[in-house]
Fold this sequence. Notes:
globular
Amino acid sequence: MIPERYAPYTYALFRIVVGMLFFFFGLQKVAGMFGGQAVDLMSLQGAAGIVETVGGFLVMVGLFTRPAAFLASGEMAVAFWYIHVYMVAMGKQLGFPAGLVPQNNGGVDSVLFCFAFLFICSKGGGLLSVDGAMGKK
């Protein structure tokens, strides 16, 4: 069990890793990196890629952490409900309630990112963040 005194450090590591992974998802869409295919930036997927790239970077470095995490959380909520439930689950004709299960509709990443960013939004930048260095709470 990790002692409570390490909580600020484990939270900083959590924020950095979650932001980095989100940043990489964005780079897949925006730049076609990491095995992804670049999409049109004026499309829905392009807008998602911009939010993921910019938001992931901001959360990773801890700059404007709360608003960036809030926007990223909202984007992931939309991704789950619109893409995974409405488009994928209904396209597979999974129906209710099977279509709402993230394992059935491919939305596990979206749900995890949504709630991870919601947590980060509530906690702020913390240690090892630009916000923390500038004295923002």
